[in-house]
Amino acid sequence: MVKTYRHESILGFFKGMSFPIASIAVVNSVLFGVYSNALLALTATSHHERRLQPPSYTHVFIAGCTGGFLQAYCLAPFDLIKVRLQNQTEPRARQGGPPPRYRGPVHCAASIFQEEGPRGLFRGAWALTLRDTPTLGIYFVSYEWLCRQATPGGQNPSSTTVLVAGGFAGITSWVTATPLDVIKSRMQMAGLEQREYQGLLDCMVSSARQEGLGVFFRGLTINSARAFPVNAVTFLSYEYLLHLWG
């Protein structure tokens, strides 16, 4: 944090933010929409009926995995651009100094398309899919389990329960997601660093050989700290809107 602030000022902490803001509504709409509809198809019960007839954890896991799988392909290009911009460590352009490689998200997307082709925008997509598919199954199972433990049968969970369950579900999902998140980010940066991995397995083996197994848990602390408030608010919004419009 100190090095980022000294080298890039306070703006360094907000790199790559515009694309996530532009995409988060679409990505979450896909995730929660597919999850809810997959659960409806598996159980034939609406959201309001699920408190009286709770779905099995197997159905929750399958629905979550389905949402995670489809979300990953919507997220891949946006996530790639975010990672590239966040890893661009040059300070803001100064007179007489070298300009940054990417001038913004649109320029970043255009540069990747020009230099790496259409497939370049989906670099790391397999790692992202492998990260999100099981992780989001675990995410929804954790949330459901915590809500059921704190809520009497047949009743809707309170706002406090939803906030706490959503926050801890977010932390649980990031504990399982971080190893593949590290690999995904390295594969996404490979095109910029002119380094080509032969695939997902090659990236994992190379990283472990050079930096040890601890490399797969880099960023876990900050991811977990971010996950609690973000997912607490996400689930509260989800439950409130379904109740409002259901």
TrEMBL record:
This is Solute carrier family 25 member 45. It is a multi-pass membrane protein. Coiled coil: none annotated. Its main location: mitochondrion. PROSITE patterns: SOLCAR. GO terms for cellular component: mitochondrial inner membrane. Keywords: Membrane, Mitochondrion, Mitochondrion inner membrane, Repeat, Transmembrane, Transmembrane helix, Transport. GO terms for molecular function: transmembrane transporter activity. Belongs to the mitochondrial carrier (TC 2.A.29) family. Solcar repeats lie at residues 55-149, 157-244. The keyword Transmembrane applies.
